Amino acid sequence: MLSGFVYGHKLVNSSRRQITSLLVPGDIADLQCLYVPKLDHNLSALGPAVVAFFPHAAFRAILDQSPQLSQAFWRETFVETAIAREWIANLGRREALARMAHVICELAVRLRAVDRTGSFSLFIPWTQMDVADVCGISGVHANRVVQELRRSRVLDWDPRQIRILDWDALTEIADFSDDYLQLRIAGRDLVASEVA
User: Could you tell me the residue ranges of all domains in the chain?
Assistant: First the structure.
């Protein structure tokens, strides 16, 4: 991913979409396809996105020649797996308000880590239906959750932009810790200067 957002998703009963991952600039969308023949899910752009393509055979050859690069991609695979586990816990055990807050916290930290936030605003071209499909709730319920987050004054949510007003309150609602992201700088440190 060079810019924009891509999401992974699966269709349930051929019509109901569950968004299973969000990819931000710097992420590799199909790392598993280096060793398995095809993806087990779909990838779609969430608004305008720029992606780079690299032939798998050439990629495997480079990894064979560079143990350090190979280790870096193993690490990336483990982090992706940790994110997937966190999303499973989010969908399975958190209430809708905490689910949505958790996704926003994760995106804020990941985007800040690649220097893609400004004045602690997240510019994300998603609709409330996209958010609903991330959180496994209906569009109507997503709207109610967004309104509750606004009323709580933890964030402003305009079309295409989320501005976090109270990071501590948002992380408390979300029960969020960024340890699973394995970033060298903690999320609190990443956002402290932006929120101040």
Answer: 6-195
pLDDT in tens, 78-112: 999 999 999 999 999 999 999 999 999 999 999 98
| Region for 118 from its dihedrals, namely left if φ exceeds 0, alpha if ψ lies in -120 to 50, beta otherwise | beta
Question: Model's pTM, two decimal places?
Answer: 0.88
Q: How many CB atoms lie within 10 A of CB 37?
A: 5
Edge-to-edge strands, sheet with 161-164: 121-123, 161-164, 155-158
Which residues are 163's β-sheet partners?
Answer: 121, 156
| Secondary structure element (H or E) that encloses residue 162, with its range | strand 161-164
Q: Which residue's structure tokens are 């600039």? A: 25
Q: Mutual orientation of helices 96-113 and 67-93 as an angle, nearest 10°?
A: 160
User: Which CATH architecture group holds 6-195?
Assistant: Orthogonal Bundle (1.10)
Residue type, 174: A
Q: What strands lie across the sheet with 42-45, from one edge to the other?
A: 16-23, 6-12, 42-45
Is the Cβ–Cβ distance between 135 and 100 less than 8 Å? yes
Tell me which residues of the chain have a pLDDT lower than 50.
187, 190, 192-193, 195-196
